[in-house]
C-alpha cells in the first residue's frame, strides 16, 4: 500500500494535500508537480511511503535541483514509485548505465558467447590431449569461490538509506533523526515542521 503527500510552505505555515502519482512517471514529472504547488518558490516536500517497506522525500526549493532521500534503496528499487527517486546520480552510476548494460546483454547468447563467435563445443578435441590437459591442469575452484567479491554486481542497488541525510536539517530533523525514522515517518516529520494538524486533515 502506498501513500503520498505534499507539504508546501507558505508565509502562513504549511499547506498539506494528499497526492496522486498515477500520472507521474519520471523524476521530472514529480519535480514539476512540486513546483506547481510552490508558493513564491518556497519549499515543497513530496513524501512517498510504501507501508512497512520504505519512504522517500523529494524536496524542491524554487528552481533549484531537487534533493532526495530514500530510507531503503533496495526496497524502493522494487517499486515503480521508488525507481522514480533512485536516479543514476543518486546511485552513483553513469547516466544511462542500465540501458548500456541491457544492450550488451542482448548481444550475448544464453551460452555466454557473443553473436558470431565459434561454438566451443563444436571444436574437435583429442581424447589424449584432453587427458593430458587434465593432468597438467587439475580442477580448481573457480574465481568466484576464491574471491568473495567475484560475481558482485557493481550496479546492484545498496540496502539501507541513500541520498541527502541533511534534507530536513534546517527544519529541525537532523541526520540522526532521519535515520531512525521507520514506519509512519511522515507523522514525525510533520510534527517537526509544525504541520501535524494540516496533515491530519488530509489523511
What attributes does this structure have?
single chain; 203 residues; alpha+beta; 10 helices; 6 strands; 34% helix; globular
- Oligomeric state as shown: single chain
Distance between the termini: 14 Å
Strand order of the largest sheet: 2-1-3-4-5-6
Class by SSE composition: alpha+beta
Which bin fits the share of residues in helices? 25-40%
Description:
Strands 2-1-3-4-5-6 form a 6-stranded antiparallel sheet. The chain is of the alpha+beta class. The chain starts with a strand and ends with a helix. It is 34% helix and 18% strand. The chain is built from 10 helices and 6 strands.
Outline of the structure:
It is built from ten helices and six strands; from the N terminus they run ββαβββααααααβααα.
Task: Explain the layout of strands and helices.
Elements: E1 2-10, E2 13-18, H1 27-37, E3 43-50, E4 54-61, E5 67-70, H2 73-76, H3 80-85, H4 88-91, H5 97-106, H6 127-136, H7 143-146, E6 162-163, H8 175-180, H9 185-193, H10 196-200
Antiparallel strand pairs: 1-2, 1-3, 3-4, 4-5, 5-6
